[in-house]
Design brief:
The chain is an alpha+beta fold and 242 residues long. The chain folds into two domains: 149 residues, Jelly Rolls; 82 residues, Arc Repressor Mutant, subunit A. The chain is built from nine helices and 13 strands. The chain has a five-stranded antiparallel β-sheet. It has a four-stranded antiparallel β-sheet with strand order 3-8-5-6. α7 packs across α8. It is elongated, with a radius of gyration of 21 Å. About 2% of the residues have low confidence.
């Protein structure tokens, strides 16, 4: 269950305009677009409002962002790692989950909120899967959409993100202290992602991803409310400009 938004049937004109700009739904017949419209509604959420709390999203619908920004946070309960992704206008969240009949375990690790006032079109997953299975044109568009997304991720130059992440690692070094008793390097209290991002001069999502990388690569270990730096040399190398 989600927080109660302003909800109404998606206006046909707005919905048609949104579909015409989205790669998975371009060049579809009026009949296919009409079927999508029948199983969708328009919702509005205010900035900071919860769309789905952690553990509530099950892939039962996906969202087309008409305006504003939607924030999706992935929280790994085992490691404490957190990753944030934001979806702006003309983007889609949850399409991959909607195509999986039994849902995905990953859904339970997601929290969805409105980063800014956001207008969404929510499309029900079950009728959408049925429609896609019977309409080769729609399934072909979806396949092309995911193929293009995968190619963009696979061949993305690491040099594009590297400087930003290095700025985050360098900012984290300012918080590292040597424990006088154990001799461990540690960050006694982790700064909020927003504060860390401000110090590093990057987006908050990049700051969150950089911290998650340290934990996933076993360079650091969660020790609430801080971090234990397991490998200080590796952290210094990640922060180095050379």
């Amino acid at each position: 269950m989600s927080a109660t938004p302003v909800k109404n049937a998606a206006p046909a004109d707005d919905f048609a305009e949104a579909l015409s700009t989205m790669p998975p739904f371009q060049d579809l017949s009026p009949a296919v677009r009409g079927s999508l419209y029948e199983n969708a509604d328009k919702r509005q959420y205010s900035a900071g409002q919860t769309v789905y709390s952690l553990g509530q999203y099950d892939g039962g619908e996906f969202f087309i962002v008409m305006s504003g920004r939607l924030r999706v946070t992935l929280i790994d309960g085992d490691t404490g790692a957190m990753m944030i992704e934001e979806f702006g206008p003309k983007s889609i969240f949850g399409l991959e989950f909607a195509l999986i009949e039994s849902g995905s375990d990953l859904c339970q690790k997601l929290a969805v909120t409105a980063e800014a006032d956001v207008d969404l079109i929510a499309v029900e997953a079950d009728p959408f899967r049925t429609l896609a299975n019977g309409r080769p044109s729609l399934m072909r568009n979806i396949a092309n959409y995911f193929a293009n997304s995968l190619s963009a991720m696979r061949f993305k130059s690491p040099a594009v993100e590297q400087p930003s992440e290095k700025q985050v690692f360098a900012a984290l070094l300012d918080f590292v202290e040597r424990d006088e008793v154990t001799g461990q390097w540690r960050i006694p209290k982790m700064p909020k992602h927003r504060e860390l991002a401000h110090r590093a001069g990057v987006d908050e999502a990049i700051a969150a991803e950089a911290v998650a990388t340290l934990i996933q690569d076993k360079i650091a270990l969660r020790d609430y409310p801080g971090l234990i730096v397991i490998n200080m040399n590796d952290l210094e190398k990640l922060a180095s400009i050379w």
